[in-house]
Design goal:
The protein has one domain (24-136): Lipocalin (Beta Barrel). Strands 1, 2, 3, 4, 5, 6, 7 and 8 form an eight-stranded antiparallel beta sheet that branches. The N and C termini lie far apart (41 Å). By secondary structure, it is of the alpha+beta class. It has three helices and eight strands. The radius of gyration is 16 Å and the shape is globular.
Length: 140
């Protein structure tokens, strides 16, 4: 019976989209949408923090160059330099439903070597994101 329960649980977890299995912590919102971080994804690598960020857009976004497709949420890999207060985004996955659910519409890969860390503007969502994610890093 225990083997059956483990098999059912394993099958359920493996079949869940990554966004549904993740625990998202609210970072904040602004006029474009609501931002979350997957706290368990925050790692230190290449001298910066790496984290998965979920953005639920307030308005559906047109997926340019892909016909009449719109995405409602996206999950991005963010790179944050806590000391210099810089942020950059790598790979992104766009979904047709909120919370990183539904059909994957587009998922371009961007290697870290192609990511450009940029200064955050005072009072911006980027500045808030750097501050909050850096405060959630392991060991804090």
């Amino acid at each position: 019976m225990m083997k059956y329960a483990v098999l059912v649980l394993s099958t359920t977890l493996l079949s869940m989209p990554a966004a549904q299995a993740a625990e998202w912590s609210l970072l904040g919102d602004n006029d474009i949408g609501t931002f979350f971080v997957e706290k368990a994804s925050i790692i230190s690598t290449r001298g910066v923090l790496q984290a998965r960020i979920l953005l639920n857009w307030n308005q559906p976004q047109e997926l340019l160059g892909h016909g009449d497709k719109y995405y409602t949420s996206e999950i991005s890999t963010a790179y944050l330099d806590c000391d210099k207060r810089k942020i950059g985004f790598g790979s992104r996955t766009m979904y047709d439903k909120a919370d990183g659910r539904g059909k994957v519409l587009f998922s371009p890969y961007l290697a870290y070597s192609e990511v450009k860390l940029q200064d955050t503007l005072p009072g911006s969502t980027g500045e808030q994101m750097v501050k909050l994610v850096c405060n959630k890093r392991p060991g804090r």
